[in-house]
Amino acid sequence: MLDAVFGFRLNPLIIGLGLLLAGVVVGYGGRSDRDGRIETEPTVLVEMVRPEFVVPPEVQLLADVEYARPNGQPLHLDLYRPEEIVGPLPVVLWIHGGGWRSGSKASPPAMELVAKGYAVASVDYRLSDAALFPAQMEDCQAAVRWLRSHADEFQLDAQRIAAWGESSGGHLATLLGTMSHGVTGDAGVSADVQAVVDFAGPVDFLALDEQSSGENVVRHDEAWSPESLLVGGPIQERQELVALANPLTYLQTDRRLPPFLVIHSRYDSVVPVRQSDQLVQALRRVGTRVQYLRVREGRAINALKPEMLDAVVDFLERHLKNSSPTTAKTTADVAERRPHPVRHFLRKTYRSSIHHDARPAM
Length: 362
Description:
Blueprint: H1 2-6, H2 12-28, E1 30-32, E2 38-40, E3 59-68, E4 75-82, E5 89-95, E6 119-123, H3 135-149, H4 151-154, E7 156-166, H5 168-178, E8 195-199, H6 208-211, H7 226-231, H8 239-244, E9 260-265, H9 274-285, E10 290-295, H10 306-321, E11 354-356
Parallel strand pairs: 5-6, 5-7, 7-8, 8-9, 9-10
Antiparallel strand pairs: 1-2, 3-4, 4-6, 10-11
Helix pairs in contact: 3-5
């Protein structure tokens, strides 16, 4: 019948492919609003894509260690250490992405650092479908305090802890670096970190749509965006809480912050690169040491490329492992007056060339 209609013979394979594509379009389909316009359904955000995860024989893993129990909900981390430990190990806390809505501590790319003489703690935290912000920030603080409290037991260096996160995890890592966490929680134990690695974390939620290009895959002001789900409603209607989730809220010229490494794709279609531009400029204004790398090509970061790992290792060697140990703060915390983090992302395509910001690190 189709042959008769179109006047030529249709290849069954072409027909099948056409039906498959039609099904994909319908699967991603839209919904009509009252004005007859079509609105795209919420984008599903994913984590950084990684190959099948296998723990190398030279790495010892302590899995599912409970580090906190907020409201009776157990939270766990996985601790990776070298098989042979020489002296207390500097620690990197890995915070996964997933738009604060998905993701897990499994298969952390930061495990690559174990071979370089680091311990890596990959942490799970309460997702936004279980608890609204600032629960996610509080969980990351609790993880840092647990690592510091148990440093002697696991041969960790309590004065050398870094936070590394990607996407929404980068947002939480940045908050750990800009907020002074003091000693709330475990008595006398600080949640401050000594270095931060941020892979494309958002900072200013309210500016995301304004800064986005026409190819952006998320409308951040919508009620279903990762940021809005994090704070319990459209971000433009939750501006006070959003301000608390903005790392820039906590910058002060009279308080020294840890050094930062910021990496972002300049063509990121989820979190615009102007978010990281804004963060780096603000950090430099208050005298923070910052190294800024921008990916030349690709729309987002989807894998830990060798160049990126080299940059992270070099940064941590200079600012964490070989730096003079600093005593964690023990002054009273003011958590009730502090903001919490918010953000979301997902990475897709990354190509290897990296652009080094022309300005020297401070």
